[in-house]
Amino acid sequence: MINFKNKIVFIVGGSGLVGKKIISKLNKLGCKKIHNFDLKTHKFNNSNRVMNHKIDITNIENFNSFLKKKVNKKQLCPDIFINCSYPHSKDWIRNNFKSVDHEDYEKNINLHLNSYIWTTKLIIEKMKIFKKKGSVLLFSSIYGVVAQNNNLYKNNKLNENFSYPIIKNGINGGVKQFAAYYGKFNIRVNAICPGGIINNNLKKNIKFINNYSKICPMGRLATPEEVANTAIFLVSDLASYTTGTLAMVDGGWSII
Ligand SMILES: NC(=O)c1ccc[n+]([C@@H]2O[C@H](COP(=O)([O-])OP(=O)(O)OC[C@H]3O[C@@H](n4cnc5c(N)ncnc54)[C@H](O)[C@@H]3O)[C@@H](O)[C@H]2O)c1
């Protein structure tokens, strides 16, 4: 059985679509404390175990000072670290092949890829120092494994994104690199690679949903619940011999 009693969780992006689901599940499964680091706070049901920290995770110095101050003994060190944030620049919508410029490309590599990698490095070092049997899960995407299919963006308002697959490939590389080094310290590091996840905004974009469903072997997008379920498995002891994996939660998108 999955047992999260006594587990301390740090999650980045826990107020988002998937993050909220993960926190609700971890809360129900009895985690001792869940620290949510996000630009916005979210009020969870029965939330006495959830602590919201309103921070910009891309400010690495701030996060490092927080860790230095607050994670100074084993009892305060996380057993589980999840990053499901989606940091990006204001011009993100223009980050396609036609409109992207070097400045915006570089900015997004820094905001998303570099913040994922460096926060992970800081947290894992804490886990190592306090001899935690740690579990880390970084959110990647199908686009960390395959390129974008341009047919998806035909006849609808969405564009391909130039930088996103490069960022997610980088995260997958980081996951393997961390997993290889920290395995001997009993710290597991995995990536989850979801396909498109349905949300209220996307539901209005019928053309995109149709295009997506035609390409995807399972004929539909994922629900946030389905993605969160795999996340729970990967951070739990049920996955105690799973490290360095890129878990595809994509209805078969990446096999064709
Ligand atoms: N939604 C999808 O279809 C989909 C598909 C594949 C992969 N993913 C990946 O899954 C993860 C979660 O996606 P989601 O749909 O839940 O995203 P979301 O946008 O709903 O949530 C992301 C959360 O990150 C927070 N955030 C953004 N910038 C931040 C910053 N600088 N500091 C702190 N918090 C910040 C936001 O406030 C938000 O609560 C992301 O990494 C995304 O790339 C999503």
What this model shows, in words?
The chain is α/β, with parallel strands linked by helices. It has one domain (8-255): Rossmann fold, CATH 3.40.50.720. It has helices spanning 17-28, 60-70, 102-129, 164-182, 200-203, 206-215, 224-235, and strands at residues 8-12, 33-38, 50-54, 80-83, 135-139, 188-194, 246-249. The protein has a 7-stranded parallel sheet, with helices on both faces. Helix 1 (17-28) links the parallel strand 1 (8-12) and strand 2. It is globular, with a radius of gyration of 18 Å. The model has no long low-confidence stretch (mean pLDDT 97). Nicotinamide-adenine-dinucleotide binds next to helix 1.
CATH superfamily: NAD(P)-binding Rossmann-like Domain
Question: Which fold name is given in CATH as the topology?
Answer: Rossmann fold
Radius of gyration: 18 Å
CATH class: Alpha Beta
Query: Which residue ranges are poorly predicted, with pLDDT under 50 across at least 5 consecutive positions?
Result: none
Bound molecules: nicotinamide-adenine-dinucleotide
Whole-number tally of structural domains: 1
Topology as H/E string? EHEEHEHEHEHHHE
What do the pLDDT scores average to? Answer: 97
The amount of beta strand, in percent, is 5-15%
Globular, elongated, flat, extended or rod-shaped: what is the shape?
A: globular
Helix content: 25-40%
